[in-house]
Write a structure and sequence with these properties.
The structure holds two protein chains of two kinds. Chain A contains 13 helices and two strands; from the N terminus they run ααααααββααααααα. By secondary structure, chain A is mostly helical. Chain A has a single domain, classed as ABC transporter involved in vitamin B12 uptake, BtuC (Orthogonal Bundle), CATH 1.10.3470. In chain A, strands 1-2 form a two-stranded antiparallel sheet. In chain A, α6 crosses α10 and α8 packs across α10. The relative contact order of chain A is 0.18. Helices cover 33% and strands 27% of the residues of chain B. Chain B has a six-stranded mixed sheet, with helices on both faces. In chain B, strands 18-21-22-15-23-24 form a six-stranded mixed sheet, sandwiched between helices. Chain B has two domains: 235 residues, 3-Layer(aba) Sandwich (Rossmann fold), CATH 3.40.50.300; 236 residues, Rossmann fold, CATH 3.40.50.300. The two termini of chain B are 41 Å apart. The radius of gyration of chain B is 23 Å and the shape is globular. Classes of the chains: A mainly alpha, B alpha/beta. The interface between A and B is large, with 42 and 71 residues.
C-alpha cells in the first residue's frame, strides 16, 4: 500500500558526509568502493598464486580484458540511457569478418586480393556503426523496447555474418592487419593501447561535453530531458551507434588475434559486457553510473578469470563463480546506495 | 458535553538524520472526531513526523500512543493494520495498473483465489462517487491527469476505513469543487469518530476544516491551539517566526507591445479556438477547473503536442514551434505542473539540472565551460534562495519547494522571454511562495512576459494583470486586474 517516495519530502539534508573537496577514505569508498574491491582481489590472488603478479601475467590480463573493455564502454553509454544492447557480440563478429574480408587473399567475393589495411578497418567499423544506428533508430524513433530490438539484431547480425562468410572462417589475413591484435608498442600490447585511448576519449565525451550530460539526462528522465530541449531521439541513436562501432572495433582486434575472421566469434560477449557495466555500479534503469566503474568492473572480471585459470579451476566452475560475483556486486552496490539514502 | 478522547498521542518524539535534527521533542494529540491541522514551512518536520506515525521511520526517542495503547511500528503495514492510513503528498501510484487496482492494492476482493474484478470495479466506483469524481475505474492511471490521480489517492485512503487518516497536502492538485467534496467527506468521517491529521499550505482550507492547529518550525513544536483562537496573520507569523507580510500584490506595469500572440489554437477534445495576446511586462493568469484544457494548451504551445490548427506569433513574427527545442530557441520556457515526472532529472545533481536547458550556451568549442556553468548556476541558487548542501547534491534529496526552485532556476537560466508557468507554487510553503512571486514580478518588469496557470484564486488574483478563464477547452471569460473577484471567477469557471 505504501510507496516509498518519502525522500522527496525531506528537508535538504547532507546524507552523504562528503565535505566539498575533501577526499576522505569513506567518500572514496562510497563512490568507488569497486576500486577497493579490485585492489583486495589482486592482493588475495597474489597470495594464492605466485604467477599472478608476474609482468607477463599482468600484460596477459590487460590484453584479455581489452576486447570486453571496449564493448563495456559502448554498453555503458547505452545502459546510461536506460537501454541495453544484446547485439554487441554479434556485431563484433560482423565487424570482424567484414574487416577480415578486405584484408584476406582467400576471400573470393572480393576478388581474392588484399586491400589497404586502413580500408579494411574503416569498412569494418562502419559496418558495426551501421548496425548500431539501426538499433538506435528502432529504439529512439520507433520506440521499440531496446531489449527487443537488440535481441532481434543479435540474430540478424549473426545471420548476416554467416551469410557473408558462407559459414567458413576467413583465413590468410594480411600481416599489417594483425598488428592491432598481436603488435606491441613499448612492450604494451596494441589492444591495451587502443582500449586505453578509447577509454580516455569516451571519458572526455561523457564528462566534458554536452552530449555526455544529455546521455545522463535521457536516462534519468527522458520526458524532463525532452522538455529541456534535448533531442532525445538523436542521443539514443548515437549511443547505440557508439556501441555498434566499439563492438566492431573489438571484432577487428579479435580477428587480428585469431588471425582469421571467425563467424562464430563473440558469442555471448554481450553478457560479459553487461556484467562489467553492472559490477561497475551502473544502474540498469539509466541515469546513474560511471565509466570508471565500468573500467574496474571489466578489470575485476578479467582478473577473476585469470586468477581462476592460474589456480587451475575448471572453466565450468569459473562460469558459476562469475555469475555469483555479478549478483553479489550488484547486491553490495544496492545495499550501499540504500544506506546512503 | 462529551470530552473528546485522544485517538493518537505523540509524546516528545525526536528524530535525527545525519547532520540534521528533524524533530526535537514534538508532541501533539489527535482527538477522536476532530480535524487537527499541522502547519509549518518546508523543512519544519511535518513529513518526518508523519512518516514516523505511519511506520516508515523509527523515532529516536519519545512515545506513540494509539487508542490508549503504546505502539511501536517497524513496518508501515503495522500502522495500517492498527488503523492509520495516509494520503501522501507526493503522488506515486502504479501507473500501469487501473484506478480500481490502485485503490485496492493489497486488499483486492477475491473469488476462488482470483481477483473478483466486477466487485473490485464496483467498490472503486463507490469510493470515487463519494468524492463526486467522474473517473473510470478501469482506466489505467497513466492516462489520468495529476488532479485525477490525487482524487484516486484520496479515495484509496478513505476506503481503508482507518481510524486515523493523515492527509498530506491532499488538495495540492485538485480544484475548488473537489475540495468541497473532500471536506464533505471529512465532516462525515468526523461524525464517525475518526481523527484526521491535515497538513496543508492552503491556510484558507485549514481555517475552513480544522478544529485545532499545531505549528512546527525547524523541527520544534511551536504551538497548539484551537482554530477559534487563531487567525491567518498569527498563524503565518508562528510558522515563519517573524511577522508575516501582507498578501503579495504584483505592481502592475503599463503593458508594452505584443510579446506572444496565439490565434485560433485548437486540438480536438482538448481545447478550442484559443486566442491569447500576451503583452510585454504582463502576467497573464489562466484559471479553470480540472480538465478545462489549460495544461493541454501549454503543451501544444510549447511544442510537446501538435495542435490541429493555430498560429503563434512572437513579437509579431510568425513562428513554428514543433518541439520543445524550437520553443526554447524562441525564448519560451515551460515549468510543468508535475516536476518529478517532467521537470527534473531526479538522479542528477542540482548543478546538472539547472544547466540542462542551457548547455549549448555554456559550451565553448567541444567542451562545457565548467567555470561559467558554476557561475551561472550559483547565480540561480542565490536568486531563488535554494537550500542545498553542495552543487553536487542529487535533486531527489531536496524538499518539494527546493525542487521546484531548481526547475525555475533551469528555466531562468535560458534566459526566457516568455515564461509558461503551470501551477508554479504547488506544494511550496508561504515563505518560498513570496520569493517566487517577487522574482516573477521583477522578471516582468524588465519587459518579459508570463502566462501562469493557477488553481489558487488568491494567487491568480494578486499576481495577474489579466485573467483568462478556461472551461471545457474554451475561453469563457477575460478580465483585467480588479474586474473580477473570487466568487465570479469560480462561478464562470464552473
Amino acid at each position: 500500500m505504501f510507496i516509498m517516495e518519502t525522500k522527496l519530502n525531506e528537508p535538504a539534508e547532507n546524507f552523504s558526509n562528503n565535505k566539498r573537496g575533501k577526499l576522505t577514505f569513506k567518500s572514496i569508498g562510497a563512490e568507488y568502493g569497486i576500486i577497493l574491491v579490485f585492489a583486495l582481489l589482486c592482493v588475495i590472488l597474489s597470495f594464492a598464486s605466485p604467477y599472478f603478479l608476474k609482468e607477463r601475467n599482468i600484460v596477459n590480463v590487460l590484453r584479455q580484458t581489452s576486447i570486453n573493455g571496449l564493448l563495456s564502454i559502448g554498453m555503458t553509454f547505452v545502459i546510461l540511457t536506460g537501454g541495453i544492447d544484446l547485439s554487441v557480440g554479434s556485431i563484433l563478429a560482423f565487424g570482424g569478418v567484414v574487416g577480415a574480408s578486405f584484408s584476406s587473399s582467400a576471400f573470393a567475393a572480393l576478388g581474392g586480393t588484399t586491400h589497404p589495411v586502413i580500408l579494411s578497418f574503416t569498412i569494418g567499423i562502419l559496418a558495426g556503426l551501421g548496425l548500431g544506428l539501426i538499433n538506435g533508430t528502432l529504439v529512439g524513433k520507433w520506440k521499440i523496447p531496446p531489449f527487443v530490438v537488440t535481441l532481434g539484431m543479435l540474430s540478424v547480425a549473426r545471420g548476416l555474418t554467416f551469410i557473408y562468410t558462407n559459414g567458413m572462417p576467413i583465413p590468410n589475413i594480411d600481416k599489417s592487419f594483425l598488428v592491432i591484435g598481436q603488435g606491441e608498442l613499448f612492450a604494451i600490447p596494441v589492444p591495451v593501447i587502443i582500449f586505453a585511448l578509447v577509454f580516455l576519449i569516451a571519458w572526455v565525451i561523457l564528462y566534458k561535453t554536452r552530449f555526455g550530460r544529455y546521455v545522463y539526462a535521457v536516462g534519468g528522465n527522458e520526458k524532463s530531458a525532452k522538455i529541456s530541449g534535448i533531442n532525445t531521439r538523436l542521443i539514443i541513436l548515437l549511443v547505440y551507434g557508439i556501441s555498434g562501432l566499439l563492438a566492431a572495433l573489438g571484432g577487428l582486434i579479435l580477428t587480428a588475434r585469431t588471425t582469421a575472421g571467425l563467424p562464430q566469434a563473440g558469442t555471448s560477449y554481450e553478457l560479459d559486457a553487461i556484467a562489467a557495466v553492472v559490477i561497475g555500479g551502473t544502474s540498469l534503469n539509466g541515469g546513474q553510473g560511471t565509466l570508471v566503474g565500468t573500467l574496474f568492473g571489466a578489470l575485476i572480471m578479467g582478473v577473476i578469470s585469470n586468477g581462476l585459470d592460474l589456480l587451475g579451476v575448471s572453466s565450468y566452475f569459473q562460469q558459476l563463480i562469475k555469475g555469483a560475483i555479478i549478483v553479489t556486486a550488484v547486491l553490495l552496490d544496492t545495499l550501499q546506495k540504500g544506506n546512503k539514502d | 458535553m462529551i470530552k473528546e478522547e485522544a485517538l493518537l498521542e505523540v509524546i516528545n518524539i525526536s528524530k535525527t538524520f545525519p547532520g540534521v535534527k528533524a524533530l526535537d521533542n514534538v508532541s501533539l494529540t489527535l482527538k477522536k472526531g476532530t480535524v487537527h491541522a499541522l502547519c509549518g514551512e518546508n523543512g519544519a518536520g511535518k513529513s518526518t513526523l508523519v512518516h514516523i506515525l505511519i511506520g516508515m521511520y523509527r523515532r529516536d526517542s519519545g512515545e506513540l500512543i494509539f487508542k490508549g495503547k503504546k505502539v511501536d511500528f517497524t513496518l508501515p503495514k503495522q500502522a495500517l493494520d492498527v488503523g492509520i492510513s495516509i494520503i501522501e503528498q507526493e503522488l506515486t501510484p502504479i501507473y500501469d495498473m487501473t484506478v480500481a487496482e490502485n485503490i485496492f492494492l493489497g486488499r483486492e476482493p477475491v473469488k476462488f483465489g482470483f481477483i473478483d474484478y466486477p466487485r473490485l470495479n464496483k467498490a472503486a466506483t463507490d469510493a470515487l462517487s463519494g468524492l463526486e469524481a467522474r473517473i473510470d475505474p478501469t482506466k489505467k492511471i497513466k492516462f489520468l491527469s495529476l488532479a485525477e490521480i490525487q482524487l484516486v489517492e484520496i479515495a484509496k485512503a478513505i476506503s481503508c476505513d482507518a481510524d486515523v487518516i493523515i492527509m498530506d497536502e491532499p488538495t495540492s492538485a485538485i480544484g475548488e469543487k473537489e475540495v468541497k467534496n473532500l471536506f464533505k467527506i471529512i465532516k462525515l468521517m468526523k461524525k464517525q469518530g475518526k481523527g484526521i491529521l491535515y497538513i496543508s499550505h492552503h491556510l484558507k482550507e485549514v481555517f475552513a476544516i480544522a478544529d485545532e492547529v499545531t505549528v512546527l518550525r525547524d523541527g520544534r513544536h511551536i504551538s497548539t491551539e484551537s482554530i477559534k483562537n487563531m487567525d491567518t496573520s498569527k498563524l503565518v507569523s508562528l510558522m515563519i517566526g517573524r511577522k508575516g507580510e501582507e498578501d503579495f500584490i504584483k505592481e502592475t506595469l503599463p503593458a508594452g507591445s505584443s510579446l506572444l500572440s496565439v490565434e485560433n489554437f485548437t486540438k480536438k477534445n482538448q481545447f478550442n479556438n484559443i486566442n491569447i495576446d500576451l503583452k510585454k511586462g504582463e502576467v497573464l493568469g489562466i484559471f479553470g477547473l480540472m480538465g478545462a484544457g489549460r495544461t493541454e494548451f501549454f503543451n501544444a504551445l510549447y511544442g510537446l503536442e501538435k495542435p490541429d490548427q493555430g498560429e503563434v506569433r512572437i513579437e509579431n513574427q510568425k513562428v513554428k514551434i514543433n518541439s520543445p527545442r524550437d520553443a526554447i530557441k524562441h525564448g519560451i520556457a515551460l515549468v510543468t505542473e508535475d516536476r518529478k515526472k517532467m521537470g527534473l532529472v531526479l538522479t542528477s545533481s542540482v548543478k546538472e539540472n539547472i544547466s540542462l536547458a542551457s548547455l549549448k550556451e555554456l559550451t565553448t568549442g567541444l567542451f562545457i565551460n565548467e567555470k561559467r556553468e558554476k557561475l551561472h548556476v550559483n547565480e540561480m541558487i542565490h536568486k531563488f534562495n535554494i537550500k542545498i548542501t553542495s552543487l553536487k547534491q542529487l535533486v531527489k534529496n531536496l524538499s518539494g519547494g527546493n525542487q521546484q526552485k531548481v526547475v525555475l532556476g533551469k528555466c531562468f537560466l535560458i534566459p526566457p522571454k516568455i515564461l509558461l508557468l503551470d501551477e508554479p507554487t504547488r506544494g511550496i510553503d508561504v515563505g518560498a511562495k513570496r520569493e517566487i512571486y517577487k522574482i516573477i514580478s521583477t522578471y516582468t518588469s524588465t519587459g518579459y512576459g508570463v502566462i501562469m496557470i493557477s488553481s489558487e484564486i488568491p494567487e491568480i488574483l494578486s499576481m495577474s494583470d489579466r485573467i483568462v478563464v478556461f472551461k471545457n477547452g474554451y475561453i469563457v471569460g477575460e478580465f483585467n486586474k480588479g474586474e473580477v473577484n473570487q466568487e465570479n471567477l469560480l462561478h464562470i469557471a464552473s
